[in-house]
């Protein structure tokens, strides 16, 4: 592959990543509505740790830097928690 072809492939992967983040945020909104219905708070520290541990374990299995994956998932989970808070009326998100 040429440099330009590799860059094009990376751009495609980047688009897929953004699309998956959008999907994750949409699911966080659905989760917020279910948590309201169940009378549960937007943040579940035990679930947060499970999600991050699962991602780190998968990174190790895949041969990807687990520390980097941990950082990414900390941010993704924070974004989901922020989305849930906003959907539940606690914050400034729609």
Automatic annotation (TrEMBL):
GO terms for biological process: carboxylic acid metabolic process. Residues 1-88 form the Chorismate mutase domain. Keywords: Isomerase. GO terms for molecular function: chorismate mutase activity. SUPFAM superfamilies: Chorismate mutase II (SSF48600). It comes from the Archaea. SMART domains: CM_2. This is Chorismate mutase. It comes from Methanocalculus taiwanensis. The lineage of its organism: Archaea, Methanobacteriati, Methanobacteriota, Stenosarchaea group, Methanomicrobia.
